[in-house]
Automatic annotation (TrEMBL):
This is DUF221-domain-containing protein. Residues 870-926 are annotated as: Disordered. Residues 33-182 form the CSC1/OSCA1-like N-terminal transmembrane domain. It comes from Crucibulum laeve. Residues 380-666 form the CSC1/OSCA1-like 7TM region domain. The chain crosses the membrane at residues 37-54, 117-137, 162-182, 382-400, 429-453, 474-496, 546-564, 610-628, 648-669, 675-695. It is a multi-pass membrane protein. InterPro entries: Csc1-like, CSC1/OSCA1-like_7TM, CSC1/OSCA1-like_cyt, CSC1/OSCA1-like_N. The keyword Transmembrane applies. Residues 207-369 form the CSC1/OSCA1-like cytosolic domain. One of its GO terms (cellular component) is plasma membrane. Coiled coil: none annotated.
Amino acid sequence: MTSSPALAGRIEIDTNGIKDVFAAGRKLQPASVGTQVLLMTAISVVTVLAFNMLRPKNKIIYEPKVKYHLGNKAPPRISSSFFGWLPPVLFTKEPELLDKVGLDAVAFLRFLRLMRWLFTLTALLACGVLIPVNYLYTISHRPKYFDILSAMTIKDVKGVRLYTHVAITYIITIFVVVLVYFHWCAMLRLRKEWFASPEYIQSFYGRTLSIRHVPRKYQSDEGLRAIMDGTHMPYPATSVHIGRKVGKLPDLIEYHNNTVKELEEILVKYLKGGKIGKHRPTIRIGGCCGLGGMKKDAIDFYTAKLRRTEAAVLEYRAQIDTRRPENYGFASLAAIPYAHIAAQKFVGKHPKGTRIELAPNPRDIIWTNISKSSSSLFGKKIIGFFWLGLICFLSLIPLFPVATLANLDAITATGYIPFLQQWADDSKITYSIVDGVLPPAVSALFTFFLPRIMRWLSKYMGAQTHTRLDRAVVARYFAFLVISQLIVFTLIGVVFNSVLEIVTAIQHHKANATTILKNLNKLTGSITRTYVSQSSFWLKWFPMRGFLVFFDLAQVFNLIWISIKTRIFGRTPRDIREWTKPPTFEYAIYYSNLLFMAAVGLLFAPLAPLVVLAAAIVFWLSSWVYKYQLMFVFVTKVESGGRLWNVVINRLLVSVMLMQALMILTIGLQYKFKSLQWLSTVPPLLIIIIFKIFLKRKFDNDFRYYTPSEEDVSRAIVHSERADARAHKLEQRFGHPALHADLFTPMVHAKMMPLLKEVYQGRIHEDLQRSGGMRSGIEKPMAQDLKTSEGIKFAAVEQNELEYDPVLYQRDRGELDWDTASMASSSELKNNSRLSYGPGIRESYISSGPYSPGPPTAATYATMDSSQHLMQPSGYFDTQTPTNLVQPTLPYPPTHNSSSSFNPYTPDSSYPPPTHHQHHQSGFSA
C-alpha cells in the first residue's frame, strides 16, 4: 500500500494500484470485443440458416400474410427455396409496398433507409479519416496506457489534430440536413398520395370531425348541431352524434369473452385426444394458494357463469338508449376536403369550450379515455408522471451492476475475487466470451419490459388513440434510454474516476478541500478519457443488437411456445385461429430501439469511429429483415398514414444535437472553453436548431392535413345528408364498440362434439342455426352446432377449418362493413354527385376562420340545418337572400332535375361523372 506520513495508521486506498488495474483491464478489451463480434456473428449465421430451413414448412408463422391479406393486396410471390425470401426483399420497390403494406410500414422502411445511408456515409468518413489520424497520433506519442481500440479513438489526441474531428462534425451535420430534407419531401409526397388513395377517399372517418369536452347543456345531437351552427362553417354537417355512456358494458363483454375462453380451455383438456378424461375438472372458488374455498365442477360453473353474463349483456344493450350522454360526439361532413379545411381552422379555437379536430379511425380510438374530462386527465397525468419518474429511477439501479460487468476485467485484476483471476488465467477464451456477452445481455434484459410499462402508463394518462399512444411511447422511451443508458451510464464511470483523482490528491499531496476545488480543472482530461473509453462497451452491444434482429426473424420463442402449448396443454380452436393471424407490428418499440442505436452511433461518430461502423452494419441488416417481416409477417394495427414520421425525425435531430454537445464538451474540456477550437464546435448545433424550425414551418401543416386546391374541392365526392341520416352511418361507425361487438361463442373441435352429450349428461341438443358469435355468410359450412338446455351454443370446428378464414379476416381487418358502404351516400346524387360551395365561400372561410365577425354573410352557417340550401339553383343562398349579399362564383351553371328530390348542379363537362368505384386519378400507383 502507498502511504504518506500524514495518513500513517489509517486505512488508505492504493490509487496507483487502481489505475494499474484499469490499465490492465483496458488491455483485455480488444480480446473481449473481438470475441463478442465473432460469437454474435456465428450465432447470427446459425439463426439465419435455421430460419431458411424452418420457413418452407412453417409458412403460417413465417409468411402468414400470403394467406391473410386485404383484397388484392397479397404480398409478392415468394419461393420456398432456401434463399427464396431474398429476391422479394431486394427487388420490391416502394410504390408496390405502399399499395400492399400501407404508409405506416413504408414510413418505417424509409426511416431505415435514411438511417442506413446516413450511417454508411458517416462510417466511411469517420473510419477513413479519423481512424488514421487518431492511430498515427497515438502511436507517435505513445501514452502510458493504450491499446489497439483506444488508439483509434480521440482519447489521447491533442492539439491542432482536433480540428479534423471538428470538421467531421460539420460534414456529418451536412449529411443529416441533406438526407432528412430529401426524405421529408418524399414522405410529404407519399402522405398526399395516401390522402388521394381509394382507401382514404372511401373512408367515413376521413370526412368526420370529433368534438370533445362538450359542455353538459350541449350533450345531445341538437346541442352538437347548435355548436356546429355557431362556428359559421361553410360546409354543412350531414349528421351529428353524441356519445352515450356504456357504463360497465365493455367490462361485462370482456368478462363474458374471458369466460368463453376459460370454458374452451377446460373442455380441450378434458376431451384431449377425442376421449373423455378420467376425472371431471373442478375449480376452487375462494380460498388462497389452493387452500380453503369451495370446490365445484368447472364445466358446470363456467356454463352457468356464461349464461348469466350473456343475459346481462343483452339486457344492458337493450337499455343503452336511455343512458346519459357523454361529453364527446362526432359530426360527419359531405366530403373529405371540407373536413380537413374545417379542422385546420379549428386549431387553437374552442367553440363553446369544445375541442374540434379530425376524427381518428374508430379502430384507433381508446374508448376508455375519450370521455375523460380535462380535470380528470390533469389528475391522471400528474399520477402517471409520478409513477413514470419512479419507475425510471428504479430502473437506473440495474445500471450499477451493468457498469460493473462492463469492467469485469478490471475487477478481475484487483485480485479481490480470486476465482475470477484464476478463470482468466486458465481459460482466456471462455472468460472473454462472458466478458463480452454478459454486460450487453444484462442491459438488454433490464430494458425488455420498460416500453410495455410506459405504454400502460401513457394509456392511463389519457392517450385517446393508439396512434397518440405510440407517439408518447416513442418520446418517453427514447428519452429514458438516452438519459439512463448513455448519460447516467457514462456519469457512473466519470464519477468513479473523479473520486479516484481526488483520493490521489489527498493521499499523496496532502491536499485540503480548498486546494482540491482550485484544481478541479485537472480532472477534465480524466472525464474525457472515461466516456471515450466506454466505446468498447458499445462495440460489444451492437453485435448483440445485430443478433437480436436475426433472432426476431427466426421467431424461435413463438415456435417453441406453440409446440409446448400443443403437446402439453392442447390448443382450443380459438387459440389456433388467433395464432394463425398475422401479428401486429409494434412500431413504437422498434422505432425507439432504432433511434437509440442512432443516438449511440452518432454520439461516438467523431470520438470512436468503430462504433458508427458497427451501427451502419446493424442498420443494413435491420432494413432487410424488417422489410421481409412487414411484407410477409406483420400487419399494422391501425393505419395512420405515417404519423410517427415527424416524431422520429425530431428524435433523430436530438441525437445529432447530443453528438454536437458532446463534441463541444470534449474540445472545451481540453482547452478550458477559451480557444478558437471550442468556438468552432458551436455552429453545427445552431444549424440543427435552425433546420428543425425550418422543417416545422415547411412541412408540419401539409403533413397533418389534406390541403386541397379549388379544383380538388370542386371535384370532391360529396355525400348527401339524407343518406347519412337514413343509414345512421355516424351512429353505427362511431358508436362505442361494446354496443355492436359480437359475443364469443364457445368453439370446440368437431371430433369432440359428440362427447359434449356425455359431458353435459344429456342436457344438450342439435341446433340447426349458426351460432351468434359467427358471422353468417362468411364461414364455410361446418358440423352442426349444439346447444345446451341452458341455452349456451357450441360451434363445431372441423380440422381443416381450424385456421382463420381469410374472408373473415378481410372483413375483420378491413373497412368493408362501413367505410365502403359510405360510398352509397354519394350515389343518392347519382351522376351529379360533385358539388361546390364556390371559391368565394372557401376563401372567405380560410381567411377569416370560423368566427368571422359581423352579420351572416357568405360564410354563414345558420342556414345549413340541411343540405337542401346547397342544392337550390341559386347556390348556397336561398332565393329570398337580400341582393346586397355577394353570391359565390359557381364553377358551372345551375340546372334543375325534377326526377330527384334534390336539385344538384350539373357538373362541368371537364369533370367526368363519378361512379360507385371512381375516385381521384392520383391514387396509388401499382
